[in-house]
Amino acid sequence: MGPAIENLMASSQYILGKPVEDFERAFAALHGMKYCVGVGSGTDALHIVLFALGIGPGDEVITAANTFIATAEAISLTGARPVFVDVDRATYTMAPELLERAITPRTRVIIPVHLYGQAAAMDEIMDIAARHGIVVLEDACQAHLAACNGRYVGQFGVAAAFSFYPGKNLGAYGEAGAVTTNDETLAGKLRILRDHGQSKKYHHVTWGLNDRLDAMQAVVLNVKLPYLQTWTGDRRRHAEKYDLKLKGVGDVVTPVVRPGNTHVYHLFVIQTSRRDELQRHLQAHEVQTGLHYPVPLHLQEAYRFLGGKRGDFPVTEQLADKGLSLPMFAELTDAQIDFVCDTIRAFFG
Ligand SMILES: *Cc1c(COP(=O)(O)O)cnc(C)c1O
Question: What is the pLDDT of residues 126-171, one digit of tens each?
Fold first, then answer.
């Protein structure tokens, strides 16, 4: 990593340039896509696509109730209204049977979230969207290299948003994100919009944003990208081991993979009715866990104006109360997984 960063410093090309172009080409190719446009973060990636599509006040954009706030923020930033749909009880991604009911004449975009590393039910969602003439934007921020029925995420919607926040499956050394698309016109528009609407320096065909992928982060991502497939395989093996060792332990529910999906386990989320107690027990044994997410968006102060109340999205609320994210990263060792699972088994007695 050091020499790659020193090379960039010697070139003083910190904004866009070759490292960004190299990364865009490689990242698009890895997901079987034609275009990739590097942007400042995953949040920017979602927002800039909505911005490019002309989404604004009076529009509604549907997304999953169980997601990180960034998905909803990207919608709010355009002036559009986020509309939440509960997730599937087994797989935790947008429930297609509930999606149809949330569609109104104002619905412009559907943003399924490939949550925890598992692709949403894309065939069903694409069918519904096509029937209503609505555009789909995939939130793939947690799902690099995840697949659904043999196709990588990003290959379904008009575009997909990826995050390279340090904790994501492919992490930069700071903020970074990207949009992938097969739509040449959209890709061209995004390149202009991310760079203040410039077609060339100081010639602004429109007003845009400062949403460029930092060249320093592109350098870091170029060094790490060749390892992504190996790291993803490691995560999948860890998940298999967790799954095996936690079967039948207490009331623990392990993740369910939808048939045809390749889950990349950004997170390994279990459910138990004794979640808080178990988390304290693990913490006492120096095992750090996480909650994704402890307060659902419809119950957040930020989204009180939407009028959501407890009971609106039962599966999302259940995950908030019972979900626990166990340690999951490529470098986990078998001994560490054994220790976590033995500690959980001891807790349930
Ligand atoms: C991380 C994340 C984002 C936002 O990505 P940033 O790079 O942190 O802006 C959006 N959606 C989901 C589901 C995420 O997990």
Answer: 999 999 999 999 999 999 999 999 999 999 999 999 999 999 999 9
Q: From CA 131, how far away is CA 150, in angstroms rounded?
A: 23
Point out the ligand 1 atom lying closest to the alpha carbon of residue 70.
10
Q: Quick one: which of 250, 217, 249, 311 has its CA closest to 5?
A: 217
* 200 & 259 share domain: no
Q: Given the DSSP bridges, would you call strands 135-139 and 107-111 parallel, antiparallel or unpaired?
A: parallel
What pLDDT was estimated at residue 123? 97
Task: Note whether 198 and 270 are same-domain residues.
Answer: no
- For ligand 1, whether the C-beta of 42 sits within 6 Å is yes
CA of 142 to the centre of ligand 1 (A): 7
Instruction: Decide whether any atom of ligand 1 lies within 6 Å of the 43 Cβ.
Output: yes
CATH of the domain at 90: 3.40.640.10
**Of the residues 226, 241, 273, the one at which a domain ends:** 226
Mean pLDDT in residue range 37-60: 98
Q: Do 168 and 276 belong to one domain? A: no
* Count of domains observed in the chain: 2
- Residue 336 belongs to domain spanning: 228-347
* 111 Cβ below 6 A of ligand 1: no
Q: Could you tell me where the DSSP H helices lie in 142-249?
A: 184-193, 215-224, 228-246
